[in-house]
Amino acid sequence: MWRRLRPTKRCLFRLGCLLGAATGLLGASAAETAAALREASFDGARCYRVRDLSLIREDVKLFLTDGYLILAKPVAGAPVAAFFSAETEQGDGEVLLVPPTASERASLARFTQAPTLNEHFRGALLLFTDGTGAEIEAYLAERQPKPAPEMGALLAQQWTPVLRNLTVSFETRLLEDLAGEAAREQGLFFAALAQTKLGSFDVIYDPQAREEVTVGHLTSRDNRSFYDIWTSFPGRRTRQGRPKGSELDFTVQHVSIAAALGENLRLRATTKLRIVMPPVAERKRPGAVVALDISRRMRVSAARVDGQPVEVYQRESERSALLRGSDNDAFLLSLPAPLAAGTHEIEVTHEGDVVNAAGNGVYAVSARGTWYPHHGVQFATYDLAFDHARALTVIASGEPAGEREGVEAGRVVSRFRSTAPLRFVGFNVGEYQKTVVERAGLRVEIYANQAVETALAPRRQELLVAPPALGPARGTGPRRAMDTVVAPLPNAPPSPALAMERLAGEVVEAYAFLTAQLGPPPLKRLAVSPIPGTFGQGFPGLIYLSTLSYLDPRDRPAFASDPYQRIFFSDILVAHEVAHQWWGNQVASTGYQDEWLMEALANYSALMLLEKRKGAKAVDEVLEMFREHLLAKTAAGKTVEATGPIRLGLRLESSEAPGAWRTITYEKGTWILHMLRRRLGDAAWNRLLGKIAREYRGRRLRVREFLAEAAGLLPAGDPDPRLENFAGTWIEGTGIPTLRLTPGKVAGQGVVEQSGVDEDFSVDVPVEIQYRGGKIETRWLRTEGASTHYQWKLGGPVLRITLDPQSAVLAIKQR
């Protein structure tokens, strides 16, 4: 999915609003417990001077060396918070944390200038549902420190407002954990630390997260909030092999959505999910609470489980959304008892403003892919029905399943159905014109607005025009003032509908090209529709294309007219979104560290089609532009590529370099696949893509699995047979080297100089040897440090030796 504006983040880790081990809200409703959390306060009578209190959570070590500790009043019978103040004589607190990998140590150092966290702090606000309260109570029972009510009153008054602000941020998670006895094993530990050098930052230990340990900082830049993740990694027990279990609490088999678009385009819907619950003994979270995700633009008004009404809890929080890396909210369904193993039906009623008018009869669907309740990344079948005004056209994922009259006059119900499991579904709406192309069993429907959105419409301009000369002025009377006229538009307003035939041809060409390489798409029908903005998105059977793709390059605004933008909207975007029918929709990623692969595969698929149409030189030109973008400087004076390794995914979208995520994901990701293709050779590369598309259809793919498949197709004698150095250099690390080959005086000897990267940067680079008889041989050389010498036995007289003549390595090459 290409996004030229601010991208919507997908989930980085399950924190702030995610599932906990719950066994039912005991003695209080979800609403009552939530109200108690919002009114949480510190208990001035429970303040003590403490010394040498240690809180250890695997890799996280928190030492409350000397200071005052105040406990919060219990919520639902359980302590959930404490505050430690070292603002006293000889007061001190300390946090120790050592990230286990070089890339995570480098990530931490980018924000703190140190690869490990060893900092003293003056204050710590703790939120917990994991048993921390019991540890503190045990410490107090053993040490029996004297209460300090005067200090307690002062701290309670000062820090209760901060506590309430934080509990709002984590309210959904706290509420769910408080619901059951299993919370201690799966509960949250959160510490907000105040420190002189680094300011305020968070240390989090969450056993439910994919990566249990996270350190980060809430900040803002240019009126935009960010949660900068300094480091995040699996805890020690997970690294040592402790099984994590499934990330899903249940399987979604089928989704049925009955939606209605009102006159104001507000969406009201009832979604039914047929789910399968595993046996209680196999559940990671066996409680009587079900959690689902939905767009923050949607509000859930009611829910039923197996036909019985259940309590719904939904709470918005900007902080938790930033932590989750998502524009979704989690909402909870509180059940009277845990669901039995087997099939159940969840019914959710929800509504929201997910369709917005962009002017001139153009509409934008804003909550793409999250406008209905869902649970994790799953493949399911769908039935969709949209009740809407007859003047509008609604298109959606799946095969059209007919249209019928609506209950009210002037309205119709458009239905869509998928019998093949889909990862997610989308829809679009507009006052469209339509054309259809059918070829080789594929039906392509092209929809176009009748006008461009207001933001792209030409504007008339007022011009000041001098009055005509009427001969020499007579007398001393005043001269005529300048006249104001409205200049006519230079051309007729651009019409997106004029591009339908052209787009149909491009989509059919891309579909045919990719089907030949990757096998059949998930659906035989593909609807292509416009979306305001500068991005695109590919749902199963439905594509959004930027309005700019519908326009002739001469009709596009100035910001979309530079050389790269012309290529992007004319030659890349359409094929990229078509490729998402396979990459991202048919084969999915497993988590934020792997998401770049789907975007890179879609993007490189588009470049392969560009190569077929316009030759290898056109691809080289795009790759050169990508390299220039990666080498551009950020506000901090670093290159964009140096912001962080591509494996950091959406963590790259930080306050330090807000645009780095897009550039590294799409453009460095494309380069990584290009380098891999050059290493494998075209035939093996094509076999790799076909194999992945077939064998991972309807499954989730990890980067390491992709590389393992690629390694199995490497030519014999490759210097990196398991692609370990390749992964370490390009996926786990950063750096774009400057390379220069200098032949020695003796044939077969020479040196490759490397600069512009860290001294431990190492890359395999091809060296082409051209013999006088015409024979060409390629040998690989691994750089080590600033200079790497080679001494080869050659197969005859040499005409020339060239370093990487086919741009098989992302580097700056000096001749």
Molecular structure report:
The chain is of the alpha+beta class. Helices cover 25% and strands 34% of the residues. The chain has 17 helices and 41 strands. The strands form 10 sheets. Strands 1, 2, 3, 4, 5, 6, 7, 8, 9 and 10 form a 10-stranded antiparallel sheet that branches. Strand 37 and strand 38 form a beta hairpin. Helix 12 crosses helix 14, helix 13 packs across helix 14 and helix 14 crosses helix 15. The two termini are 37 Å apart. The relative contact order is 0.08. The N terminus is likely disordered.
Q: Tell me, what's the shape? A: globular
Major sheet summary line: 10 strands, antiparallel
Helix content: 10-25%
Arithmetic mean of pLDDT: 88
Uncertain residue ranges: 1-27, 470-480
SS elements, strand count: 41
Radius of gyration: 30 Å
**Class by SSE composition:** alpha+beta
Query: How much β-strand is present in the residues?
Result: 25-35%
Number of helix segments?
A: 17
**Termini Cα gap:** 37 Å
